[in-house]
Amino acid sequence: MIAIDLQSLRLFCAIVETRSVSHAADVLGTSQPAASYLLGRCREQIGDPLFLKSSKGMTATPKMLSLYQELRRGIDVLDSALSPAGFDPRRSDRNFRLAMSDIREMVFLPSILGRLQSLAPKVTVEVVQIPLQQLPRALDFGDVDFAVGNLPEICAETSYTTVFRERYVCFFRKQHQSIKRTLSTRQFEASDHIIVSSPFTGHHSVERSLLERDIRRRPTLKVANYTSVPNVIAETDLLVVIPSRVAKAFERTHGLRWLPLPVSIPSFDVRVHWSRRHETNEGHEWMRWMLLETLRRI
Question: I need a surface site. Which of 121, 160, 177, 273 has the fewest CB within 10 A?
Answer without folding.
Answer: 177
